[in-house]
Amino acid sequence: MTLTGERITLRELTVDDAPAAFEWGGDADWFRYLPVEHVATVEEERAFLAAREVEAQEQPRVQYSLGVVWNATDELIGSVRLGISSRSHRGGDMGYGVRRDLWGRGITTEAAGLLLDFGFGPLGLHRIFAVHHPDNVGSGRVMQKLGMRFEGRQRDHMYAHGAWRDSLAYAILEDEWQPGQHVAVTAHQAPMRALDLRCDRDLILELHVLASYESETPISRVLTLDEWRTKWLATEQPGQFLDTILDVLADPRAFSTVWEEDGRAVGYAYARITEAPGFATIAEFGDVAILPEYQRRGIGRALFRAIETHAIEHGADILRSSAGIENVASQRLHERAGWQRHEIGYEKDLHRRDADRRTGG
């Protein structure tokens, strides 16, 4: 079964989803508010998904564990669950979650909304409830946005991670739910916008300074970072670098995105389309960079996905990037996003075309 929304689709999970599901299934921090432990390996994730496949075949079916798929890239980004707790009383309970780097974009709300549509529609449920850890404020907001009503605090409701914990309970009735309404109102875009050199100039130059400094091997470094920055800013290179970006962004087939957090821009990425006649349409990454204090929060991967979505919308077949050989963090970011080594950089086949469609490899 599948449930399709504006940005996402809910579908059955299979054991083949194990590598993608391990992105959150193996994330201990993702599970800190849940009454279960994270899995330690992809094989454990595969075993968990195998059990969900068995559940899906049970008759009558009482558990619906579904994957959340991002429509633009067909990428598995999370999972939801709807259980029928009482057929005679037409009651159900639900849970939900997406990868940490996608929090705050309204995706979880949209997924839970589709689940409520299904529960109150085809399943004919009368009441659906959900609970969350008192400290998990984000989960509570999802329930509130969906129109669920707070019904109380359940003391020592679960024993998890070596201690008893309370739960905050919410529920919604069938006559209180209007299909699609809450999803449309609450779903919002990521904290991103297009790159604008008028206001992003300082961010771009600082990130370029940091990247170029880190690209130097430790043995060849003779200046401190502050000395490096002062020396570089005193040359003509900053102006030339900005002019290069302006030239790229002037291309109507170029696209960019800036991540904003804490009221300021903290990272950016941009790319443009090039053609290899008779072979493929290629989206060339110009740059992707994030301030050090905001790294390791999933922002880089979110920027990658935003550029990938833009590339697909512009008809690109392949993404290419020239990550510096010495830039280990950039290399890991590309590899985790599913890119493959290509000459001195990386590339990703957006449509998994046959090898003869790839250029230069």
Primary descriptors:
eight-stranded mixed sheet, 33% helix, alpha+beta, 31% strand, disordered C terminus, 361 residues, elongated
Note down, in words, how this protein is organized.
With 361 residues, the protein is of the alpha+beta class. The chain has ten helices and 15 strands. It has helices at 18-25, 42-57, 107-120, 137-145, 181-186, 197-215, 225-233, 237-250, 299-313, 328-336; strands spanning 2-4, 8-12, 63-70, 75-86, 91-98, 127-132, 149-160, 163-173, 192-193, 254-261, 264-276, 280-290, 318-321, 340-342, 345-349. It has an eight-stranded mixed beta sheet with strand order 1-2-3-4-5-6-8-7, with helices on both faces. Strand 12, helix 9 and strand 13 form a beta-alpha-beta unit. Helix 1 crosses helix 2 (42-57) and helix 6 (197-215) packs across helix 7 (225-233). The longest helix is centred in the middle third of the chain and has 19 residues, at 197-215. The protein is elongated, with a radius of gyration of 23 Å. Mean pLDDT is 83; it is low at 181-190 and 353-361.
Instruction: Figure out the total of helices.
Output: 10
Shape: elongated
SSE string: EEHHEEEHEHEEHEHHHEEEHEHEE
* Structural class designation: alpha+beta
Beta strand %: 25-35%
Binned, the helix content reads: 25-40%
**DSSP strand count:** 15
Strands, helices and their partners?
Elements: E1 2-4, E2 8-12, H1 18-25, H2 42-57, E3 63-70, E4 75-86, E5 91-98, H3 107-120, E6 127-132, H4 137-145, E7 149-160, E8 163-173, H5 181-186, E9 192-193, H6 197-215, H7 225-233, H8 237-250, E10 254-261, E11 264-276, E12 280-290, H9 299-313, E13 318-321, H10 328-336, E14 340-342, E15 345-349
Parallel strand pairs: 5-6, 12-13
Antiparallel strand pairs: 1-2, 2-3, 3-4, 4-5, 6-8, 7-8, 9-10, 10-11, 11-12, 13-15, 14-15
